[in-house]
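ERR on first pass: missing label on line 2. Operator R.T. fixed the label and resubmitted. Corrected input:
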Amino acid sequence: MLTIERLTFLLETYGTDRRRWPRGADQGLDAFLTTHAEARAHWTEAAAFERVISAARAEPHLAEGRLTALEERIVAAAMAGDRGRADATMTTGNVIAWPGGRGTAVAGPEPAQVVRQAVGASRRWGIGGLLAASLAIGVTLGVYDLAPAPQLLAGVSEPSGAPVAVASFYVDPDEEAL
Amino acid sequence: MRLRLAETPKDGPSRRTGSSGDGTDEADLLRRVAGGDQQAFRTLVRRHLPAILVSARRIVLDEAEAEDIAQEALLRLWRGAATLEVGQSGTRPWLRRVATNLAIDRIRARRGTDVVDEPPEVPVAARQQSEIEETEMSAAVHRALAHLPERQRLALTLFHFEGLSQIEVGRALGVSDEAVESLLARARRTLKGELQGQWRELLPGAPDI
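pass 2 clean. output:
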């Protein structure tokens, strides 16, 4: 049941957008506002405050020249870059996104779906990397067994003289964080 | 600690294009981008750059860092266009989520260093008086936001401006639901005090200035 104290708490915490309140917290709100002048005053004040802080939502008034320069920089970087790592970079940072929780209307692609794709792709890369590494180890050992060439392997040998198979893995930091 | 962010529903139109693009249009552009179409990529950059810049800047409070983040987010779009599926809202929710995540990663990386406590100076283009007033109010809010303790600022920014739910904010910041409530309430109370000169003018019966 709503009280002035409860309403004040809800407004201070979540604001006047009741869709963002905890589930069921706005039950009886309309009647409460109708019958309590103090509640209405709190509401009006909270709404005015929100209009002010919403000003910070405005997109930046960057000088057109600066925005254009940044746009050029981005396009140039894209053209110069390598698209081969596309799958490995399709996560959203060191994070997993998940479908919107309470009060969040998720629009567009389901974040989890996008991430699942990315994780799947990264796993495929991971499997490919392991296969490639296995092949490299096999070839290295095979070469060593068939035609030892200590002078060529000296740089990658253990102190004991045993050869060290050097395999290079690309570890996707995004996947690592999962 | 991992960050977990959801898409935001609060996407407004781009000032430069007047549209954030519908899903069909964006899906077509994305297909072309996947095929290496530079012009299609440029269209998406022009359309979404301002919005993701402002998202990043609100979090990192640094213009140069925000630009780097926007660039990285758009480059991820370029590299991954072939595997990204867009819905009705187009690519912007995904881009903003990427930018927000990258921005919070940077905040994490700079922990232990001084936090910028003033909003960046932003060059402004010539514009109408109403826009100037709007920008002045926006600058006042940004200043007040920048003076909040970091966790309060991030909680309020993610919840109010980026549209994350309370649960998502908690996961992003690594704190409990209750802690998010507390952070939000304290942030709003502090801001309300600092900005009372502005919001009281909007109350019914307030004298016109």
